[in-house]
Every structure is written in C-alpha cells, then in structure tokens.
Amino acid sequence: MSATDRFERVPSLPSSTRDRQSLVLTLLAGSIALTLLTPMLWVVLQASQVPLDRILEILLRQETLDIVLNTVVLVTAVTIGSVLVGVPLAMLTVQTDLPFRRFWTVLAAMPLVIPSYIGAFAFISATGQGGAFTDILAPIGIEQIPEIDGLVGSVIVLTLFTYPYVYLTTRASLLSLDGRAIEAARSLNHSRLSAFRRVTLPQLVPGIAAGALLVALYTLSDFGTPALMQYDVFTRMIYVEYDAWRLDYASIFSLLLVGMAIVILAAESRIERTDEGEAYVNRGTDRPGTISLGRWKGPALAFCSTVALLALIVPPAILLYWLGRSTGGIGGSYEFQWIYAWNSVYVSSLAAGVSVLAALPLAYLSARGESRWASLPERSSYVGYAVPGVVLGLGLLYFTLHYVDSLYYTVDILVFAYVVRFMPQAVGTLRSSVLQTDRKLVEAARTLGHSSLSAFRKVVLPLVMPGVIAGAALVFLTSMKEMAATLLLRYPGFETLATYIWLVRSSADYGDAALPALVLIGVSGLSMLVLLWRGYDVQE
Amino acid sequence: MTDHDSDFDGGASGGRETSSRRRFLAASGVTAVGAVAGCLGGPGGNGDGSSGDGEMNEFSLGSFQGSGPFVGSRPEPSGTSIRDLPNLSGTFGVALGGGEGGLYIDLFEELEEIYPDLTIEHRTAPSTDLANTIKQEADADNVQQDIFLSVDAGSLGVVSEAGATQQLSADAISSVPSAFKDDERNWVGVAGRARAVPYNTNELSASDVPSTVQEFPDTLGGSMGWAPSYGAFQSFITAMRLIHDDETAIQWLEDMQNAGVETYADEFQVSQAVADGNLNAGFANHYYALRVKAWNDDPPIELAFTEGDAGALVNVSGAAVLTGADDTAAATDFVRHLLSAEAQEFFATRTYAYPMIPGVQPVGDLPTVDELDAPDIDLTELSDRGGTLDVMREAGLSV
C-alpha cells in the first residue's frame, strides 16, 4: 500500500493488546451489523415458503424482466444525473470565485429537506393541462407546459432531490484535495483541463462514488416518486404483491432488490479500490488555488439558479398555491397539531444520534481494518437502505414481537427502524472522515503514552467531527421524511408530520396536505441550516 | 406513499342472500331521548373501554350528516339510535384501516363529543398494513387493540383467519343483511360500495348500457375507460373468476382491450372523464360519480348497474372485535354504535357509501342495496387477489 503503513505497528505496544482491541472492535462492528440485518430474517423466512419452480417462473416472466430493466434504467439515469448536477455544483462552490459562494454552498445542499414524494406531487400538479403552472403563467402568455411524468418525470424529480448526496461527498473530497499535485501538473505543462482529468478527478472519484452509491440505493428503494409518475419499477411490484396478500412473492422481489443493491455496492467498492486509496488523506492545508470563472460567471450563476429554482422554489410554491384551496376531496377535519412536528424532530434526532454512535465502529473498522473482511459489516449495513420501508417495517415487526416485545408500542421501535434504514448514510460520511485523518497523528498520540481510547477521543474524534455532523444531518433529514415504516410501527396517538401528510392526503384534498408538507420542509430546512452553519464545512 | 390504499377497495366475505328488511324502532334522531337499552357491558379491565356506565351528552343528527350536497332532502333515518345503546366510556384502541381523509376519525370525534368519558385511541394506516400487523401480533399472542375497522373486507378475512378476532353476538349485528357479515360472526360490514357503470347522459341513455358485463366488449367497449391497477377493479375481476372461471376472465379482459378500452390511474379519473365527455362509459365504484356530481355543476353523468354478475358486486368496509379487547361486550357495543342509525347516516352522507341497515337510505337517487341485483358470492373469497394479478398479467395487462 503506502508509506504510512510502515508506521502501522507501534513497537511499544504488546501485540496481544492490539489483537484484543481489534477483536473487540470486530466483535462490536459485527454485532451491530447483525442487529441491522435482523429485519431481513422475516423476509428470508417468507421467501423460503415459495417452491423453487414458482420462484423461477416469477423471476423469468416477461413482466419481471421488464421491471428489472426499467429499474436499472431509472437507477442509472438518476445516478448519472446526480453526478452531472452535484459535481459541478461542488466544484463551483469550492474551487471558483462564484459570487455569493457561501450562499450557494448552503443552498445546494437544501433539496435534501424536500421529500421526493412531495417533489413528485408538485411537478405533477404543476405541469400538464390544467396544472398550476398553466394558471400562473397564463397571464404572461404561456399557454401550456408539457406534462412531466413517466421515466423522464421520475428522473428529473429524483435527480433534483438526491443530487445533494453527490454534492456533499464531492465537496468533502474537494476540500481535502492536495493543491500541490495540481500545481505540479500545471508546471509540467498540463492544461487546466488535463490537470483536472489526470490529477483532480482521480482524487475525487471515491467521493463522487460514495455519493452516487447513496443516490443509486435511494432510487432503488423509492416507491413514491415512480408510483406518482406512473413508471413501473421494482418497489411498485413489491407493493402490488404485498397488497394482494402475497407476502411470499413480495419477499422474493425484495430479495431481488437486495441483490441489485449488492451489485451496486460491489461496483462502488471496485471504484474505490482501484483508486490509490490515499486520495482522501489530508496531508496539509495546501488547497488548490481559486479558479477565476471569468466570462463563465454568468452561465455558472444561471446553472446554480436553475437548480435552486426547480428544487427549492417550485415545490413550496406549488404547496402554497394549494394551501387554502379546496380541490374536491371528500372532507374530513383531522386537524393539524404542532405536536406532530415535535414528534418528527424528536424521533429523527434520536435516530440521528443512535446512527452516528452505531456507525462509528463500522466506519472505523472498514477504514482501518487490516483483514479483507473488515469492510463486511460496513457493506452489509447498506442492505436496510435498499429495502422498501413497508417490507423492512414488517420484518422489524416480526423480530420485535418474537424476540424483544418490550420494544413494541414504544418510540424505540421507530428509532430502530430509522437506524436500520438510514444509518448507511452516516457510515458513508464517517468512513470518509476516518480515511481522511492521518494515521500518523494517532500513532504519535500513542507513543506519547495515550491509550488507544484516549488517542481516539483526543485525536480522531475532533478530526472526524465534520463527518459525524454530516452523517447525523443526513439520517435526521431522511428520518423526518420516512412514511411507510412509520405507518406500520407507530403506536396509537403518535403521529409524525409524514404520517399526518398520509392521513390527509388520502382525502385527495391537496389543500389540507399542503400545510404539514410546508411545515415538514420548514422544520427540516431550519435544522439543516443550523447544522450547516454550526459545524459542517461552510467555514472552509 | 401507497396510492392503492387511499380509498375503499379490496374485499372479502359473507354470503349474499336476500335480505330481510327488518324495521327497528324508528328513532327520529333529534327528538328521542336516550334510554339505556340492554346494558351488556361490564366494567373494562386494564384501562380498556367499557359500556353501560358513563355519561352522555345531547347531540343532533345534523352533526353526523355534515353539510354535504346530498343532505338536503333526506328521509329521517330509522334503526337503533345511539340513544338506545349502552353508553360508552373508558379507552378503546381502534386499528383504523385506510385513510378516507380522516373521515372515520370525524365519526370517532362525534362519539367522543357524546360520551365525555370515552377516549378512542386510533392507529391509522393502510388496511393491508394493519391486517399484516394484527396477524403478526396474533402469531406472537400479543394483539394490542380492541377493534379493527377496515375499509377493505379482505383485511378482515385475513385477521379472522389468523385467529385475532372474537365472535360478535348475533343480536348486535342482526340488523345487517347476511350478505354483508361473516357467517361465523367474526366481522360485520358497516358501509358498502357497489360496482357501477357511470355513463355520459349526453351520449347514452340507461337502456344503452347492457345488463351483463359479458356484453360490454361488443357494445360500449370501444368508448369506455377502466383503472385496472385499482384494488376495487381487481375485486371485480376476482368476482368474475369466482362466478365463472379464470379463462372467462382472461377472455373478457382481452376482448375489452381489443375493443379499445382506455386505461386510467384511478376510478375517480374514469368517472370524471365520463362527465367531461371523454368517455361514454366506464367501470368504477358507485361513489366516484357522486363525488363528481358533488364538485361539478350538474355534470352529465349517471350510474347504471348490471344484473346478478360481477359488475354488480357489493363490497363492504367492516368492523371486528379483536382478541386484544378484554371486555368483549363493551367492544361489541362499540360496533353497535357503528351500526346505529346516526353512524349509518354518517357513512351514507359523508362517504356516499351504502348504509348497511335497511332503515337508512343511500344518498342521491341511488337504488337501495336490496334493489341492486348483487351476485351470490362469498365475499371472503375476494381476498384471492393474487390469482387475479396472475389472470390480468396473462391477459396482457400491466398491474
């Protein structure tokens, strides 16, 4: 590997202590990973009830093949789209003299606060005949906006609301980029483009891949957007079978979905491994110089504004348009209460806290472990992220009722569900942070007589703090939006913003659903701002 | 965000026979004064709900009817009034399936207004979710809630099959025709919905609509719309499979497609397209046409019903007492309240559903449930929706 490996074994430590510590870490990470996989027990049990010939028949029929293809197309397109939006935004906000850079830095991350199902709803109700856009734009002579739906609609919406994953991870990589290498390349007569391609890009690839992984897995497991856009993918198939009381079939499709997730995970691992493995290590503070945009300033600003307009202005504007309008629903007056907002914030915060704590051992082992299996607990934690909420919810229900029934009808089971579903996001950010910390610093602390725990606390923790905060923020935001598992697992009287939106949405009265949707966006947005301003990499 | 669960849909159970139209003492809502009849409930344990004791406030029928467009000229409902039922008190845990826009929650709030000592703790989720939850709870012998109120009768069948229900007393559900309750009394229908053929009155007259589903491909098929991904449509196909067989259903689906039927996302859209003149007719649940009427100014849409076949299927939302209820009698009294004249009036005027007791009329100029010629099938068997998915796929429909 690299030069730092030579410092790996600290002579002053007896190897038995090292072994014991690494054994403890491995056991800890392993048991966390197993806990996260417990809901899958039910899925496997259900699937195992289907005879093999029936499984083959289901897997090989034309409809299944079509849906696999549809899903692959959607995941690929959204992932590429997110990279095309997220990477330029990251570069513009980190490396250039873009006007109002700090403003755009925060804004570019904000679409994460908008649930993609709300985004999809906004675009559907805004476009096409009789859409809100047509109403709004009619006075200025625009008669019709084509309807956005199907594959195109799904790709646009999912890209707009998931690209921040790529933006955030790419940004983190850019911030730790070694500027001296670029200068060296430039001094060797490489053009700026060529220097980017040969020096910058290879260093960015693992960061981009980490974000793209989250985008791909999110797209794989999302039900709301393709369902609203009427584009047939795996998750819809799972719901159709689930709704027809064929849990066994739904489980088979869920396992197939997990299979696809494993392929994506393996692909991402390969991308990361082909890299030198040292790109993340922050050796110094020599950041590359700022690139002057010159005449590209206008187009750059136009690009940033367009993304912000589509992702951040359109959905709230549409919601405001519906607010207070009656749209032919059948009524029902289940009133909004602010306690729902508090409930959402409360469980999501707990989920964020627990996720970060549980993610740390996995991330640390994966980043620092010497065995080739060290990444296994970290990789396996992504399984929960790829499974649709309702399947995961039922799996969790089964496990809880049979093995830890004291959890049932408590807030804890919701926290558990969110941790299983969303912790991988924290694992990802933490892992890159751990990789970025220079091992030599830990070794130095150890040689100065600090115990490994103390060295971790005094040296590693402060350095990984940005990763901790970013991970917590991502888990918090996705937990705020979670609907399917929450509907299954909450106890009577406990409503979150998302379940309340479901409740009023079923009356088909958009006016009623607009208020809680706006509150959800508002509360998530405020939390995001606090997080971004407090610690995460805004002050570079 | 599941869209398939947003409305009445799905189905199962109960054998359809001719209903005997029993008349109960006419409790003209506003004037009758509550007399506690047949106090069956004992005190509930563990903070469970109880009946028979507790206070009762005065109320008006109007608060149950709401102010919908079809309320104006309704006859007084007859049947057992809430005033004649044991008072409810304590806490009832209700698993409430489906959304219906919090409408059923409105009914709970009405009841809580009437009984100051009553608290209804509801857990609301898609019916399928709740049925699966209750089934798992029953497997672990840990059923939490007292009552399951589902917009999908198939869910009730699943729950009673899992052994999670307690038998209702014959007396409590005697006002409901036997077609709309379980033979073993594990659940009872509280509101019905009929399959119907909405048609555009500018294009067609009632006599143009065939009286059997099988005639549609050769007659109106080319100018019709349907929503095959919608649960109620799938129950309709399931009924066709039960009455005939899989092959007949496949053939019919293929013939309709060859005739040029148009596909919509849901049955409200089908009904709206009929009213807008984009379709001559469609397949939809009856209440969608009423919603279209309620929100448009005299749209050219009316309903026709086929006779004695799948096209005239009447499916129900229903209630069951769960094994989680310690006081079965009190929980049963809760179900009696759902079958009271006032609650039935609520279902009829607020959700446009078919009332389940003969003393309450459906809204608008709908035929009564007895006048509909519903097919003679066991509603529990409608839960075989999986087989219907296979049939629809076989016929080349994407479901």
From TrEMBL, chain B:
Residue spans of biased composition, Gly residues class: 39-52
Annotated region (Disordered), positions in chain: 1-23, 38-85
Name of the protein in its database record: Extracellular solute-binding protein
Source organism (scientific name): Halapricum salinum
Residues annotated as signal peptide: none
Xref: PANTHER family: SLL0237 PROTEIN (PTHR30006:SF24), THIAMINE-BINDING PERIPLASMIC PROTEIN-RELATED (PTHR30006)
Keywords tagged on the record: Signal
Keyword field contains Signal: yes
InterPro entries hit by this protein: Ferric-bd, SBP, TAT_signal
